[in-house]
Amino acid sequence: MVRYVYLAELRKIAFRPLSLLLLLVLGLGVLYTAWVAQDWSSGQTLLFKNALVAAEHRQECAGLKGAELRKCLTHPSYVPMAESDLRQQLANDRAVAPTQTVPGAFGWSAQTYASLPGFAIALLLGTALVAGEWERRTATSLLIAQPDLRRVLLAKAMALWTVLAAHMIVCGLVVALANVTYFQSHDKLYVPTPHGLALAEWVARQGGVGLVAMAVASVVVTLIAARSRTRALTFIAGGLLVLLANMGASVKPVWAWLPGGILADAMDFQTVFPLWNHWWGAASGSGMPLWLRAVPTVALLAMAGLWLMRRVDSRDRVA
Amino acid sequence: MRVITGLVRPDSGEVNVLGRTPPLSAATGRRLGAALDTPAFYQWMSGQKMLLTLLNSSGLPDRGEAAAALDRVGLDGRKKIRAYSQGMRQRLALAAALMLTPDLLVLDEPTNGLDPAAVRGVRDILATERDRGAAILVSSHQLDEMQRVCDRLVVMRQGKVVAQGSREQLGLGMPGGPATLEDWFFQTAGDDGRGTW
């Protein structure tokens, strides 16, 4: 039964100009960040390698070995290439390496959607196309046709999630195409690219967590929209929630137990790669099992969802 | 009417619609067709697509109901709703209400913004629906129209029921009685109408 309501909602949301515009913006954004990450990673490593080669050939360091060589190479007058720098650079490469593969492109896209840009898109779509129903009074027509409010909200959340997932896949396809046609040949990485099961696991994890994160965002924004019935309130409340979820990243022991930290750990947002730190807090690095730390988050989300649903259910359906 | 359709909860009292208390289940809801307020639809959709969306939203696939309903109200379903006049939107709302051949039809000012030919068309549709066995609840300020189409009249003034019954029970057209519902309304209300608008 929900299927038809869902299909109707999907048809309504998927091809709206706003939806297509956001897809275009995020598609270009994901492509640009993939290019920046791969180009930067490749360039930096090349820089270190060249500097290393240049330094190794310097007269002053010639013939030196071990600690003596390191001391000579890290001399302030030379290009800085201490071992820690090189280690960090290689870690950057390792974080970027999967994304240069065709399947890995979808992981890169999932990382974008499971962080600030993705939540912003979910919020904008939910605000305009779900909350807007009450302001435009189209909710009246819809709720007369389908009086079961829970079914309508479930269909709306599912449709929103499907649109976000489709956006994520399209963005992944764009990056995959760029990987094959440009990045792989122009931005050489200096660590082996993962393949086989390792790559499949990485992509499955990124994609799976990304889809779950978008599902949570879709349900939350739909419930807030149904509760507030106004675009402005939905946007403000949803925006505050996203900001709240991203707070506490600097206090690692606490962050490890917060919803934002659980997401960062599940996606394995890298501390070594600065780009993600701008869009979401980095992984906590906690030694506690993730599933155990996720229990409070799941309980919190379930309680918040039930509370919101009760608030929606207990009032008039239209103003 | 919003309480009947389950959109608003009653402050007090009870409402029974098709043997159920609103809000109705999806199955019972399909037996009710309603067109309330000034109808609002998705502007970017065509009339046909809008009806399909509403039909799907009620949990059903299209088996030609949308096209048939549009045909009944004489509307071009290919046109975008943003290009519809007020009267056309009113007819689209009526088409949406009729689409599932409901047992109960709830219509709020169904002839608002319609030209005389369309008013006659609505009147014919209501007669057909009544003959089919559907119960129809219509609210309107057009008393003459109501007198023509309704079997049973409920007159409300300032939110309160002041009278109800058939045309005969209200004495309309009877010797010595008021000729029209409008005459009856002002006579009963003790008001010649000048102070009410």
TrEMBL record, chain A:
The chain crosses the membrane at residues 20-37, 113-132, 153-182, 202-225, 232-251, 290-309. It comes from the Bacteria. This is Uncharacterized protein. The keyword Transmembrane applies. Keywords: Membrane, Transmembrane, Transmembrane helix. It comes from Streptomyces malaysiense.
TrEMBL record, chain B:
Keywords: Transport. InterPro entries: ABC_transporter-like_ATP-bd, ABC_transporter-like_CS, P-loop_NTPase. Gene3D superfamilies: P-loop containing nucleotide triphosphate hydrolases. Residues 1-112 form the ABC transporter domain. The keyword Coiled coil does not apply. Belongs to the ABC transporter superfamily. It holds the Pfam family ABC_tran. It comes from Streptomyces malaysiense. Transmembrane segments: none annotated. This is ABC transporter domain-containing protein. GO terms for molecular function: ATP binding; ATP hydrolysis activity.
